[in-house]
Design a protein that fits this description.
single chain, Tetracycline Repressor, domain 2, 2 domains, about 0% strand
Length: about 190
């Protein structure tokens, strides 16, 4: 801990940045308020000045992960890929965003980006389709991250493909196209 003569001040941003760094190091299962506090050299109770609960902190991390989404306009598949890619920027990013989405915490940036792309592509029920697409993207990205983790630990069957993610882009695009239901999106195939 810091000596009594040292005054280290942390703010909401420094706590969230530290938590994201720890997420990358230890994963979501081992990301605890105690561990974050230890990294910041403060008591765990000090974190609650900035976040009322761990769930609020996780919602902030989710918002930071999805803040990097660059939605390319009416291209629904490209927007879905941008969301998926943002989820892959952090270890267990998909699982973290999925858990906060399930609890309706944090912003809805990803769903809003999908709704805009669907509206621009001519979908009449863009909000409902965006919700379905986001659930698909979150589930798909979680599956891919799980396979990558399993592969890194040598836990995949030896007789399977050498690339744990082989063919998943094609499956992803098929799922997005099926749920998007629009035929004139630039990336959608007949």
């Amino acid at each position: 801990m810091a000596s009594p003569h040292t005054s280290i001040r942390h703010d909401r941003d420094s706590v969230a940045r530290t938590a994201l760094a720890l997420l990358d190091e230890v994963g979501l299962a081992d990301l605890s308020m105690r561990r974050i506090a230890a990294r910041l050299d403060v008591q765990p109770s000090a974190l609650y000045w900035h976040f009322a609960s761990k769930q609020e902190l996780l919602a902030e991390l989710s918002d930071r992960i999805t803040a990097t989404i660059d939605a390319p306009g009416p291209d629904v598949v490209a927007t879905a890929r941008a969301i998926r890619d943002a989820l892959f920027t952090h270890r267990d990013g998909a699982e973290l965003v999925l858990s906060t989405y399930a609890l309706r915490l944090g912003s809805s940036r990803a769903q809003s980006a999908l709704a805009r792309a669907l509206t621009d592509a001519g979908a009449d029920d863009a909000d409902d389709r965006a919700a379905a697409l986001l659930q698909f993207v979150l589930g798909h990205a979680t599956l891919v991250q799980q396979r990558m983790h399993a592969d890194s630990y040598g836990a995949l069957p030896a007789d399977g493909p050498h690339d744990a993610t082989a063919g998943l882009d094609r499956i992803f695009d098929l799922g997005v196209n099926a749920l998007a239901g629009v035929t004139h999106s630039p990336t959608l195939r007949d």
